[in-house]
Amino acid sequence: MARSSLDQMNCSIARTLDVIGDAWTPLILRDIAFGITRFDAIQRNLGISRKVLSERLGALVEHGVLQRVPYQDKPARYDYHPTEKGADLAFVLLAMQAWGDRWTASDDGPPILLRHETCGALTKVVPACASCGERLAVTDVTPLRGPGFETGPGNAEISAVLERREAAATAADA
Amino acid sequence: MARSSLDQMNCSIARTLDVIGDAWTPLILRDIAFGITRFDAIQRNLGISRKVLSERLGALVEHGVLQRVPYQDKPARYDYHPTEKGADLAFVLLAMQAWGDRWTASDDGPPILLRHETCGALTKVVPACASCGERLAVTDVTPLRGPGFETGPGNAEISAVLERREAAATAADA
DNA sequence: AGAGTCCGTTCCGAAAAGGAACTGAAAAGT
DNA sequence: ACTTTTCAGTTCCTTTTCGGAACGGACTCT
């Protein structure tokens, strides 16, 4: 994982991966979301090496995803809490959970259920269109080059693909 | 990334990470979703080392996320296509994209836009409740221990947290 | 005083990644 | 016919990262 190359890419997925693109980081964020906010507790829970945990937490603070909140002074000790930016990653985690529930759960069923407090039902998280609110199927969304698009490392071929598609779509319109 | 420890965990997120828990795999899946389905094209596009790409593609086929589809015979050559299991990972990618768009995009705006063909609008993907269809806020969902839950590696502390919360909720009901 | 908690850092051997070169089979150029 | 190019890997070697155990420091508890 070339640390630098990812956030250089003109791609929101790559830039997200620059923050959470390894095996441990999402699990650390999961623990914190569950209210396990201290170094030792996370380390015990995950069985992660203290060294790597220390590095990951530092990077997450660096990225503005977590913040250190002091809970005692004598030896300075902190809880790690999500910032708004960090809390917003929950949807990524929930999407992973939904996929894992569907494709990797044991016969018993999923280990964790979610209740939607507003409607009271046990639920799962599904993707919806921000505009019409309808549930989204993958086949219903088409990618287009956006205002921030530039051909560069990590998307040269994608640029070509999109150009071809958009040209075809324009031709079809005429 | 301890290959084995992750899929051993009683957690859908961990088991998902066992499949896509590194920096390259999601980008490879993104490329394939865009229709870049051949070894060399992916390699060129991402600048990933051929060795790692080869390993990742093999693992994804192994996991049943991708399948090799022959497109010529003499030297056997394949396109990599998503299976249903693989296509279903698109929502994880879209969640990453949505987060990246919001928190890491440049001033120009996001590099890629999505059009929802059903309603015609430029959109972004938001989480919704599968039951009531309402848009979900993270604070509206409560995790509960599910049928497949077992205390074990990776969730001992979580088990304790949930137990406490569920006990508190039960007490509040009475 | 001695053990326990908490959060790290340090050191070392093992594993993984990066990178360039090499193989192999066939099509395409000259 | 011969060389170059395309395509998909594999191999080898160097650099980075990881895992694991030990150590440190600042305190609290018994």
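The first helix of chain A runs from residue 3 to 8.
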